[in-house]
Amino acid sequence: MSMIFFACVVRVRDGLPLSASTDFHFNQDFLECRKRLKALSSILAQYPSRGTAKGRDLSIHFLSSGDIACMAICSSNYSTIMAFCFLEELQWEFAASYDTTSISLASRPYAFLEFDNVIQKVKCHFNCASGSQTRANWEKIEEELKFRPPVQLRLEDTELMNGMTNGGHAGVHVEVVPTYRMQRVTPLGILSLVLNIMCGALNLIRGVHLAEYSFQEDHEGIGNVIAFFLPFLACVFQCYLYLFYSSARKVKTFVLFFSVCLCNVYLYGLRNLWQIGFHIGVASLSSYQILTRQLMEKQPDCGV
User: Fold this and answer.
1) What is the pLDDT of residues 279-288, one digit of tens each?
2) 81, 145 Cβ separation under 8 angstroms
3) Which residue, 21, 159, 227, 247, could crosslink 263 as a Cys pair with Cβ 3.0–4.6 Å?
4) Where are the bilayer-spanning segments (predicted)?
């Protein structure tokens, strides 16, 4: 039968339970899955905010935000999208029920025992309600899972069981590499993008104009043409590095910055010192913005 069997709320950094449960199934497969859920909860901090551990008959889904995570045991044929719809609603119910900004999760680990009533209510809604009712957030979750798919684990991994006995430090086989997300774009970052685009346009215009003259009359000016086109390409790549994650960002940033500096020094005579200083200053600002914009793998806190 396709349904949700169990759900709970835990603390991400150590798997401490933040909710009780009245769900008791004496099926051996379910009890074994509960043990693996407990082991997985102790190592959630190692993984992205969404994940699925699939088994033959049962699967575990988890959704973390800030310092809490919602976890659920479902039948393996239960829709993954519906499972994350359920976990998202449970997460918002938890945030709405408790002012966790003023409650110390460390000092009151079992302050949320009564939240089981909410869990049962939401679980019953998803198990019993019609498709039109439960699919209210279907398209939103489906789009999010396409953009940032959940990490895939194997429920049968012996390492997952060992995580409980070894203090939660055992590794688990990961099949999907998490998608990286960058922090929000700042006003200063937007300014650097605008200035970078302007410098790139100036380099392109001057380069095209000089290329028309050089190829027709002055073949010795090809070096100046290259010195205009290289900074144009550097400006384009600086915009890309600021907006999107790329490996070896520091190395690429310094290479682009020094390319802009060397080309502008080479162009001394065609550009005065103020123009050269402006282009190098914009490249410096862009490089600083690239290096200070960090990764953000997890979604912002949901009122927690």
Assistant:
1) 999 999 999 9
2) yes
3) 227
4) 188-205, 225-244, 251-267
